[in-house]
Predict the structure.
Amino acid sequence: MQASVAPEGRFIAALAVSLKTGLLFWFIVALNTHGGEPWDAGSFWSVIYPLALLTSAALGFAFPGRAWLWGLVVMLAQVPVVVLMSGMGPLLLAGLVYATVLAVPAVAVSWLAGLARTRMGRPRR
């Protein structure tokens, strides 16, 4: 007999996986771009941001409940990494706003991936 997990437990597990994945992703980015803000890296728009969107989609697909949230978590995870790597500076609020704006497409992508996963599980009529 398979034990079922309460919805709260699934949410906390999904949140933990998303947060850890986001933090790990941005730490790897920071180490490979010599610290600082990831959006200042030359490869941000061509490699890093698309990989962050792909990560958001994968998390949305893996955890379709509240899938939109996983894209937000992944993108906002770069803020504590920037603080750890560069320190708190006068532009931290601007960085938070920028990360939030960058999260909008990630939210959409993770939500769409969760929707696709949910629709795949439904029986056809």
About this structure: The two ends are 30 Å apart (CA to CA). The first helix runs from residue 7 to 32. Helices lie at 7-32, 44-62, 67-76, 78-86, 92-121.
